[in-house]
Amino acid sequence: GSGSGSSASMAAAAAVLCPTVLVLDSSASALQQAQSLSIDEKRSVSKSFWTCLVEAAVEYGRIVFDLFPEQPLLSVIAGCATPSVRLPWTADLQTCQELLKVLAAIAPEKADAADWKAQLQAAVDQLATLANCKAGRILILRCGNSEVDWEAVIRSLTFSAKACRLEICVVTVLPSEESDAAAVTMAAESRIDAHKFCEVLVPARLLADFALRLVQVHFALRVVKISGVPVETSLPPSGKEKEKEK
Length: 246
Fold this sequence. Notes:
Layout: E1 7-10, E2 20-24, E3 33-38, E4 44-48, H1 49-67, E5 74-78, E6 84-87, H2 96-104, H3 116-128, E7 135-143, H4 150-155, E8 165-174, E9 185-186, E10 190-192, E11 195-203, H5 207-218, E12 224-227, H6 239-245
Parallel strand pairs: 2-5, 2-7, 7-8, 8-11
Antiparallel strand pairs: 1-12, 3-4, 5-6, 9-11, 10-11
Helix pairs in contact: 1-2, 1-5
């Protein structure tokens, strides 16, 4: 027979369950080729930056929603010049199904580059809508097509009186074919005013796997416990069954 449905859980320190705003680069640059995948010796297909960003967002969100259901831990913002909240903090919308619908409704725009000041300001304002939020995170997934003075951008933001302390993590995705780095390159963590900041350079081919590592770090996941996994068992026939077989 088969067992019951499967479930998984990870131990996490409650203190680090800070809400995260995921900001996606939906500029025209996201349509450029990020990775080429070979089908056979003569054929290959290309993946755009946007496809890579969506895959990473789904992997990140899937873990958050599975482990912390109906907790206001993930919001999504997209839009180059006029960013808007695509996934709110609403408890019953904190699901992978809702995230997939949200991502499917976002289309890269005509703008060559995102307005990162506008996007970060929207993320700061979104975190401010949470009551008693003492620490929040902004996770930016962007194409590595241009240099950004992140310190200047962050210093230009407007914070409300109830603004929480921020951890800002920028993941810059590089075309796999052009990236000299065989692995992820992470700059030293720094502080801009009272906020933590770090930027990570990730080849497109490694982005989805890196998203899994990132969510583990962000939510201090330590122990994996899997239980109730369906298992098909083959038992030896009983005495009566053996007689019937004869």
